[in-house]
Amino acid sequence: MSDNLLTLSGVHTHIGAYHILHGVDLAVPRGQLTMLLGRNGAGKTTTLRTIMGLWRASQGRIVFNGQDITALPTPQIAGLGVAYVPENMGIFADLTVKENMVLAARGARNASAIDQERLQWIFSLFPAVEKFWNHPAGKLSGGQKQMLAVSRAIVEPRELLIIDEPSKGLAPAIINNMIDAFGQLKAKGVTILLVEQNINFAKRLGDTVAVMDNGVVVHAGAMKELAENEELQHSLLGLAL
């Protein structure tokens, strides 16, 4: 089996009249955390949504765990062990934290049917999820909503976790908490693909990195290499990490 859990080859995506992705080639190594970086509008979110089948690739091929998923509907892709946390977090504001978690644990009809050992592990990562268990999710702070969104994604074991800007708008203490959580997930063998604007976050967590610009991947390699090369950072991102 390939060392890459997910591979995109020549992927194009059109949204209406707009041609957003122009032949994306991306490899996500198994068991590693891959950072997807790039300026605003480079095509990062479109890439994630295309992987999940929320937007359909108009050309190219997406392979997950040896299976071609290019034309699969989103529920089938999720059923293969892929979890997606969108930038807007996708939680149900009118439901309680508990009800959000039960919905995400597809095999559970109620909270007691959730794997309790896994739930306690999630509580240890994100104490706010336990603290506000019976509160409406819509009343949570931005950081607490992000913790809930990630908790929902990992309430069942997943092969691949895809997350769009998890640190956006979060306080430094919560960002550190999030970094610790992703570190623990990686240690458990979960493969993670992360879009992130917080460069510190990227440097501390990333194993590999792909940089996008104008709908294509313009650089791919080790995160360490990019983090240590200011000239490369300027040319790719217009800034120094």
TrEMBL record:
> One of this protein's Pfam families, by short name?
ABC_tran
Could you identify this protein by its name? ABC transporter ATP-binding protein
* Domain ABC transporter, chain residue ranges per copy: 6-239
The family this protein is said to belong to: Belongs to the ABC transporter superfamily.
Q: Specify the superkingdom.
A: Bacteria
> What keywords were assigned to this record?
Amino-acid transport, ATP-binding, Cell membrane, Membrane, Nucleotide-binding, Transport
Please, one GO biological process term? L-amino acid transport
* Protein source organism: Ramlibacter cellulosilyticus
Recall the GO molecular function terms of this protein's record.
ATP binding; ATP hydrolysis activity; branched-chain amino acid transmembrane transporter activity
SMART domains this protein is in? AAA (SM00382)
Keyword field contains Hydrolase: no
The yes or no answer to whether the keyword ATP-binding is present is yes
